[in-house]
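Blinded run. Sample ID left blank on purpose so nobody reads anything into the name before looking at the predicted structure. Input follows.
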Amino acid sequence: MKTVAAKLIDFLDPHRRGPLFTDYGIAGILFILIAGFIFHRLIAANVGGIITWLTVGIHEIGHPLFDLISGGSEFWRVCGGTLLEIIVPLAAFFYFLRKGWEIQADVCLLLLAIAFKSIGFYSAASLYTGEVVIVNTVDGANTVLDWDHMHKWFGTEGKEQYVQQFFYIAAALTAALGCWLLIAHIRRCLKSDVNMNDETQNYF
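Blinded prediction complete.
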């Protein structure tokens, strides 16, 4: 009789091509740790911060979507933007894993990392008042930010920098993991006898 964990893996990654079934070894662990540290330094310095705009559209759609789903709940309307930023790349990641398309799934991890970076920035955006222009669909431009509400609700008010660092670390490690998986899966694909013109193959 299969355990609950085995059944869950069967459902999420039936082809056994995801992170749980990729070889890491010492090299993989060191790569993720070192790359994660480098990514975190770059994220903290806001290098390439413009990439966070890739998820702004998804974030803004989340507000009216969760407002509609929740029947007008202010809590879900405000949190909806952040939730959808995470849900979309994560759902796409598991969709591709279920299809056996591991390379596409790896790219979704990189998109999830961008979402974490964006969320981390906005979770402490109130600290940058006057330095950046923030636009949100909950209260309008440069008024009350999503996270100003959320910090009060979650009891993290005054701890914005800790919340930011949590998401920045999540972004850095997710990006490092995604890069390692992408490299490993592309190498495996190149070493195999995959016919790229065969539409039944699920690599690209």
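Unblinding after everyone has recorded impressions. Residues 32-189 form one domain.
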